[in-house]
Amino acid sequence: MGQFNSDDELIRLISKGDREAFAHAYRTHIENLHGFIFSICYDKELTEEILQNLFLKIWENRAEMEHILALKPYLFKCAKNQLLNHFKREKVRENALKIITDRSELFKNTTEDGFAYKEYYALAMDAINLLPEKRKMIFKLRLHDEQSLDEIAGHLKISKSVVKKQLYSGISFVRKYLLKNGEIVALVFSTFFS
Length: 194
Prior knowledge:
Elements: H1 7-15, H2 19-41, H3 44-60, H4 71-110, H5 114-129, H6 133-143, H7 149-156, H8 160-180, H9 183-193
Helix pairs in contact: 1-2, 2-3, 2-4, 3-4, 5-8, 5-9, 6-8, 7-8, 8-9
């Protein structure tokens, strides 16, 4: 373990806030953790993001480390949990996006009140036009052109994870905008988009 005599000592020092011990643990395990995470997600950017979050979380919760028995299994368990949490969040987001797309089409096709739909559509377009340029383009490619996340990523030459982040940020903004800018529209949007 280099200058550290044992795993126990390293864990104890990290739990006490020793930055040198933490840096040593990082250098010792980063390569294997990177390989482990990448072998599951096959996404370099996501791997880097999970590693960053992993070590940030470990440092923030370092006081709790004094209870762990071995560093390497602990780090890999944390990495696995970070991955599982990511996949759960993405599944929820994918489902939410599908519901939003499906329900907006349902609303568009079944409404008997043309004025209500026009008002909703105009407000939605106002919100979309307020998005930053890249986010606006991603939003329109997904919802109007019905391109997949992979197609958008290829079209814009960016990673799929960037497409997802931009898209969900756009959806969140449009939803908040609609809820803020019209009682009737807010009611409709809450019913169909919640």
